[in-house]
Write a structure and sequence with these properties.
EC number: 3.1.4.11
Distance between the termini: 52 Å
GO molecular function, one term: phosphatidylinositol-4,5-bisphosphate phospholipase C activity
Keywords: Hydrolase, Lipid degradation, Lipid metabolism, Transducer
InterPro entries: EF-hand-dom_pair, PI-PLC_fam, PLC-beta_PH, PLC-like_Pdiesterase_TIM-brl, PLCB1-4-like_EFh, PLipase_C_PInositol-sp_X_dom
Protein name: Phosphoinositide phospholipase C
Strand content: 15-25%
Radius of gyration: 26 Å
Largest sheet: 7 strands, antiparallel
Structural class: alpha+beta
Length: 386
């Protein structure tokens, strides 16, 4: 953007979530109850994760979490009995948080966590939902995305609380030989414990992760562009950079008053921000590394970051709008032989859908006389209309 804009994508994570708390965890589909799991949210608000004694850490991307809400009692009698032995039954529902998540609206997953007291449950439920309101995190730049993945690797520790080397090699596994990745790790002093193939998270800094990334996945496309723009020199002059930003990067349809062209002062600000060579900064030059840092920053976003949270005028007649609608809303998965769910109605409405389908049929067999929701003649499961 020609006008300087400070994009603040971070949200304030409540202290209780940063400090962490112990919960018991269970799932509806399983009779297994995990006891005394330490749950936390990282300080950047990227991940919701938990640690259990003697087990690998489990990390969940908060972008995929839909909601933290109150829950009822466990369906499984054994889970209910064990939870009753660990706390008062009268407060069990109030102490339980239902976490729903999924990468899309087709595959819905959930689990339940039970706090030690009602106040902790309330603080965590409200805290998680507050963090989930941060929509800006979905518009972060490539460099921040790399930081996010680095944080994921640092949190995904094994039972000895070390980063498995295989998790790092898997990150760069697409088309890159594993031996090459391991050699690059050794060159950067990140070989770790060779016998156990694990690495201390404190040694794996973001700076070293970036160096590893650029070593294994060099941006040859940016390098070729830089050579072309610089005239095969080791730097871009201020004049050449201004020309690139105004003639190639800028949308020519933009209004010149509202969206002014890049000028010498603005470009000098960019050079001072992304260049590390003091001599280049003083002479108005940008190196190839600084050029890459600029292209991967918020300054080079494909959308106007100051407008991503603007809302449309919703006071016009209904016929003036396109309506976000849903077909076969109740189905999870495919149309033929799929599973019906009431949960999906809640999620599509929370996602902004304003037209849903209720496919009503007369119940048969055990459900005779009771209206049901299902896809007729398609071997799908059904749910009660009520």
């Amino acid at each position: 953007m020609a006008k300087e804009y400070q994009f603040n994508w971070r949200t304030k994570v409540p202290e209780a979530l940063l400090k962490g708390a112990y919960f018991d965890r269970y799932e509806d589909e399983s009779t297994c109850l995990e006891l005394n799991c330490l749950f936390k949210v990282d300080d950047l608000g990227f991940y919701f994760y938990y640690l259990c004694e003697g087990r690998d850490a489990q990390v969940l991307d908060l972008v995929h979490v839909w909601e933290a809400r109150p829950a009822g009692l466990p369906k499984d009698g054994r889970v209910l009995f064990e939870l009753e032995q660990r706390g008062q039954r009268e407060t069990l529902e109030e102490r339980t948080i239902w976490i729903t998540y999924g990468q899309d609206l087709v595959i819905v997953s959930s689990f339940y966590i039970v706090a030690q007291d009602v106040e902790i449950a309330r603080a965590w439920r409200n805290g998680i939902n507050e963090v989930l309101k941060n929509t800006r995190v979905g518009h972060v730049c490539p460099t921040t995305c790399l930081m996010k993945h680095w944080r994921y690797l640092c949190l995904s520790v094994n039972d000895r609380r070390k980063i498995p080397i295989k998790a790092i090699t898997k990150t760069f596994g697409g088309g890159k030989p594993e031996k090459m990745v391991q050699k690059c790790l050794s060159d950067l002093g990140l070989a770790g414990d060779k016998e156990r193939e694990e690495l201390d998270p404190e040694l794996f800094t973001f700076e070293k992760f970036l160096r590893l990334y650029h070593k294994i996945c060099p941006r040859t496309d940016v390098q070729e562009l830089f050579v072309k723009l610089s005239g095969q020199k080791e730097y871009l002059t201020k004049e050449r950079l201004i020309n690139f930003l105004n003639e190639e990067q800028r949308d020519p349809r933009l209004n010149e008053i509202l969206f002014p062209f890049f000028d010498s002062n603005r470009v000098q600000q960019l050079i001072a921000k992304y260049e590390t060579d003091e001599n280049y900064i003083a002479n108005g030059k940008m190196s190839g590394d600084a050029f890459l840092r600029f292209l991967m920053s918020d300054e080079n976003a494909p959308v106007f970051l100051d407008r991503i949270e603007q809302y449309q005028d919703m006071d016009q007649p209904l016929c003036h709008y396109y309506i976000n609608s849903s077909h076969n809303t109740y189905l999870i998965g495919r149309q033929y032989g799929g599973r019906s769910s009431t949960e999906i109605y809640r999620q599509v409405l929370l996602s902004g859908c304003r037209c849903i389908e209720l496919d009503c049929w007369d119940g048969t067999g055990e459900n005779k006389g009771e209206p049901i929701i299902t896809h007729g003649k398609a071997m799908c499961t059904d749910v009660f209309f009520k």
